[in-house]
Amino acid sequence: MMDFAERAARNEEVFRNVNEGIAAGAEQHSLSGTLPFHCECDRVSCFDTIEMASARYEQIVRNRYCFVVIPGHEEPRIERIVETEPDFLVVEKIGEAREKIDRDHPQPHHHG
Length: 112
Ligand SMILES: [Zn+2]
Hints:
By secondary structure, this protein is α+β, with helices and mostly antiparallel strands. The protein is built from three helices and five strands.
């Protein structure tokens, strides 16, 4: 059985991939305005969406430790809130969850 951080990271990765697809599609079709991005929290039963401009989403996830979640869906054990918006929070992975991202997605360069 996977431990909590492991399971949470996996779940978030699924939604991250979906959301990146949404953002990429918006770019391709030159859509402006907001799009429904999936909440990237760790809750298996969460299928809520967050409306935001795809440019805004891309700006947030440029930091690979950052995820967007609906207020109240943050998990203090594995992440800390770095931005608070009326409709969503930006959270940054900490501790084990952050190490897991490093393990799964080793990247030679870092964004400053
Ligand atoms: Zn959620």
